[in-house]
């Protein structure tokens, strides 16, 4: 995520949370499939008078696209339901953590009070289509996708309960000249991240797919194509060049199935914290973070429990996420 960006493709669910002293409050939770658990902003925890009231008093570890195996205290939210429905998320034990989306959202008039991670995606089949968020029983998605003729990709489990597909260059959609022709027969691990505004390749993936190296090409790419910045959990700024490329997602796992092509997007290139976390502390293995610039191009149904990522056949006009 850019330092000041919250925009199209981010999936926000408004929830009704019971307060410890009685009454209810409406909170906005952003969905993030690269987050292992749920989070609550410290400002919200303090306003609800539950700061530090963890059920066990223990700290828990978590992983996100900007945090590498961090620890934080948790709190107990005994009753949480989706606004306007009777759908309950049960008791939640979110970690009390500062996250960039909270600050950015408040500056833009859209407060993001908390985050819902993979524990939410494991509980429901989650379909996003424009302004609509639809939830299905977690084990019903495979049949639903088949009945409605959706393109279905299998996914592979990663560390920290995250899921991945395979990523390659879309055949015939990239320039026949220059570095984009290098990796047409190569694939890299693609980590699914509904909380990321744009897709990111680490430098190993950029080398395999595009023929770029950090030492030789980073400054040139920034000059010719521009760049963006991100911040990890420690506040460290990561500057990344951008490059336009058309990608194709393929199924992963023991019996990989399915593929789906997407319109060209400007991917960022850099070694963000999540890559090292999931790759055993190394960034030498080629990997990509699959963000909303790809995922919003088609109506998407994500079934984490069944390890499926499904897309409807119709495409939407590409929305440019980056300034």
From TrEMBL:
Domain of life from the UniProt record: Eukaryota
Aminoacyl-tRNA synthetase found in the keyword field? no
Keyword list (alphabetical) reads:
Hydrolase
Does the record's keyword annotation contain Hydrolase? yes
Q: Which InterPro entries match?
A: Aspartic_peptidase_AS (IPR001969), Peptidase_A2_cat (IPR001995), Peptidase_aspartic_dom_sf (IPR021109)
Annotated segments matching region Disordered: 55-75
Which Pfam families would you find in this protein's record?
Answer: Asp_protease_2 (PF13650)
Q: Which GO terms describe its biological process?
A: proteolysis
What Gene Ontology molecular function terms does this protein carry? Answer: aspartic-type endopeptidase activity
Q: Where is the composition biased (Polar residues)?
A: 63-75
Where in this chain does the record put each Peptidase A2 domain? 188-294
Q: What is this protein called?
A: Peptidase A2 domain-containing protein
* The organism of origin for this protein: Polarella glacialis (Dinoflagellate)
